Amino acid sequence: MLSRVAERVYWLGRYLERAENTARLLTVYSTLLLDLPRGARIGWHTLVEITGSHPEFHEHHQITDERSVIHFLLADSQNSSSILNSLSMARENARTTREIIPSEAWEQINNLYLFARDNVSKSAGRGPRLQLLQQIISYCQLITGLLSGAMSHNSGYNFIRIARSLERADMTTRIVDVGSVTLLPGLTGAGHAEHVPEPYENMVWMSVLRSLSAYQMYRQHVLDRVNGEDVVTFLLQDAQFPRSVVHSLTKLESCLQSLPNNAATLKQLEVTRTLASEANIPELLQNGLLEYIDQLQVEIARVHACIASTWFLPVVSGQQQSA
Amino acid sequence: MRIDWNSYNPGAFYDELISSPGNARNSGRILAGYLASLKSEDLQQRKTAAELAIKAMGISFTVYSEAGNIDREWPFDIIPRIITETQWRQTSKGLEQRLRALNCFIHDIYNDQKILKDKVVPAELIAKSVNFRKECIGMKPRFDVWAHICGTDLIRDTDGRFYVLEDNLRVPSGVSYMLENRQVTKRVFPELFENYDIEPITEYTAQLFDMLAAISPRPLDYPEVVVLTPGIYNSAYFEHSFLAQQMGAELVEGSDLVVENDCVYMRTINGLSRVDVIYRRIDDMFLDPEVFRPDSALGVRGLMRAWLKGNVALANAPGAGVADDKVIYTYVPAMIKYYLGEDAILENVPSYLCVDDKQCEYVLKNLDKLVVKPANESGGYGMLMGPQASKKEREEFALKIKADPRNYMAQPLIGLSTAPVLGERGAEPRHIDLRPFVLQGKGSYVTPGGLTRVAMVKGSYVVNSSQGGGSKDTWIVSDKEGA
Asked: Taking CB atoms and an 8 Å limit, are A100 and B245 in contact across chains?
């Protein structure tokens, strides 16, 4: 397959997964709010930081409140990773690789973008917003299913899966970040230092799990009650849960196996996966979790860099895409 | 929005569906009756369904504007256009014949130039042609075919006969819209397909692929065929992608290809991979910066070397445009006689050549009655519609003609046939033309029907999509139908 096409389907996979994950992230935050006492210390700003887009945010916004953050992450054209922009980029990458993806999948990606574009402005209220986010998530799932069921599991499909796994691993680390930043004593900076009462802590971790559709699987797997240590371990290290970091990276590895010239990327992947699987979570929860997650994200970004230098065109032609 | 054929009046023009107010032609009787039976809501609902289908299928074309490039949905009218099988069979033979003669001509021009030596076509026309490529002299492509894909524009005059308006031999577009129009009609009017035997058109992409595979320079079971596009900002990008997808060929851009040791390769995830046949949708001048425009970023350095050495096939071949010239066009009936020893089955529109002093004088005197066209423009650009132009416009145009007579030819204004288009107040007549697509490799193939283009503005003759034209599905049906 052409290097340029590989690159575009890869970005199709990443943007689609990013849109879905951002929708999940916004859903957790919005539902979490409903459970916490009014005026609780949940910081909307955290959300902007976690998606890595604070410079862009501060360029255009003075106030960090629910309204501006939601708009920024959902619909803002200035935010390259907003859901709407991600969907637009997914569509553009699909449009330029229409010759290799099944036409039903293209039609759905096109529809999803048009649907989101026509509805984001109606999402100011919490009710309609949750509904919209839910619909976007379902649509993404539909497309994932269509691709899996209608596209030959060839190199093109492998690049989509590679992209999805990498984006997923990355986003799971970010969602773990949300939970930790919200809850960990001493980690949230001035003003957020007091310890959260236990029932809320419980709720936050449950929301984190639900955002990744992980609650049920977690309960089946971890018999103990919901607690930070087990949740973080589950999301980072579980071998079977599809959105855990270790599982995503293992899936990625199996896709890499069938590609040519994969040695360098496999090596970097192993470094990343070892970092995830061998981490001592209880210790990190006491000290250094955020730094650890930063480091994990850097290693994930290195996997991307290996993929790009091995299989994509040497000069990025036409479009700039953001990892 | 109900349709009442009694109040539908095409006037003096030949209408494709209605012969006189209230009366449908035989072949269209079922269609006309069916449309008239639909309630206003039904019609509206079908129209909306078509718009939604086009949007969902992402059938689009790109319009260049100051505000940036806009990907616009394809304008489509839901009422199909019907042509009878008997008439089509004859037309189709004429199209095949025409392309065979044109290919003989191009091959002759780049090799022996017999037709010039025999003074059937004046040598000075070639010497001054902007589409003649001296780089191609002596080349002998497989089967001696240069123009593998041709889009011939046909129009129907008030007498109901088809005339050839022009031959597009460079990178003709529109075939994907022809195919997609049929898909949309199937979604919108599935019941009509029960009452008509409509010739299927889906075979085109398979025929195209077989033709391309057959011109491969390497004898392989599965030669590597690619479609070369200028990229996503080209107005026909949708079509390039559509054809690649339908043929299962790679869609490549110039940056994907590289020439090494006079062979063409594409950059893949496995490294370089040899390419045998390139269906190029890039103009000659941008193909190879080494030979043509040095600033071209769309082409591939060394491509011409590879082609001239016979290591890669290009469709259409560079230089094929020498016959796609509105002045050369007037000699096509003579070429048919000269190369094939046959009479032309399809007629040209009567034409006047400005390069001939007498004819030029006639043209200048009758500018208000004529349509004047430059030899090498496409998309309806740069021409003068005499009867509709102002005096000042005609005077300015006369100066252009005098300055460069070789570049102009004129034709009387043909009363293009009309077909009903669904508008706000029911069906209204609009002018249309027809672009069938003709393939030639080892053998020939003509699409049953073609792309019907519609001038959506009342009274207008401009059917080009870049200038607000629309389109219709085109049906070839048995003459018995509706009798």
From this structure: yes
Flag whether B403 is in a domain: yes
Domain of B103 in residue numbering reads as 85-150+198-340
- Does the residue B235 lie in any domain? yes
Residues B256 and B119 in one domain: yes
- pLDDT of A186 above 50: no
B230 in any annotated domain? yes
E strand spans, B281-391: 313-315, 347-348, 352-353, 370-374, 384-385
Q: What residue numbers bound the domain in which A150 lies?
A: 3-311
Domain contains A300: yes
Amino acid at A118: D
Determine, for residues B267 and A106 on separate chains, whether the beta-carbon distance falls below 8 Å. no
- Structural domain tally of chain A? 1
| Complex confidence, ipTM | 0.74
Q: Is residue B298 part of a domain?
A: yes
CB contact (8 A) between residue A111 and residue B249: no
Q: What is the 3-state secondary structure (H, E, C) of chain A?
A: CEHHHHHHHHHHHHHHHHHHHHHHHHHHHHHHHHHCCCCCCCCHHHHHHHCCCHHHHHHHCCCCCHHHHHHHHHCCCCCCCCHHHHHHHHHHHHHCCCCCCCHHHHHHHHHHHHHHHHHHHHCCCHHHHHHHHHHHHHHHHHHHHHHHHHCCCCHHHHHHHHHHHHHHHHHHHHHHHHHHHHHCCCCCCCCCCCCCCHHHHHHHHHHHHHHCCCHHHHHHHCCCCCCHHHHHHHHHHCCCCCCCHHHHHHHHHHHHHCCCCCHHHHHHHHHHHHHHHCCCHHHHHHCCHHHHHHHHHHHHHHHHHHHHHHHCCCCCCCCCCCC
- DSSP at B112: T
B382 and B328 in a common domain: no
Residues of B numbered 208-247 whose beta carbons fall under 8 angstroms of chain A's beta carbons: which are they?
227, 231-232, 241-242, 244-245
Residue B259 confidence class, pLDDT cut points 50, 70, 90: very high
- CATH number of the domain at B332, please: 3.40.50.11290
Q: Average pLDDT in the B19-31 region?
A: 93
Query: Phi first, then psi: what are they for B46, rounded to 5°?
Result: -65, -40
CA–CA separation, B315 and B249 (whole Å): 14
Domain membership of residue A319 (yes or no) is: no
* Out of A153-162, B67-76, B421-430, least confident range: B67-76
Residues in chain A with CB shorter than 8 Å from the CB of B244 are: 99
- Residue A272, in any domain of the structure: yes
- Mean pLDDT to the nearest integer, B372-396: 83
CATH of the domain at B382: 3.30.1490.270
| A59 within a domain of the structure (yes/no) | yes
- What is the pLDDT at residue B61? 67
CB contact under 8 A, A99 and B244: yes
Looking at the structure of chain B, the number of domains it has is 2
Task: Identify the domain boundary among B380, B397, B412.
Answer: B412
Kindly report whether the peptide bond that precedes residue A111 is cis, defined as omega within 30 degrees of 0: no
**B52 and chain A in contact, CB less than 8 A:** no
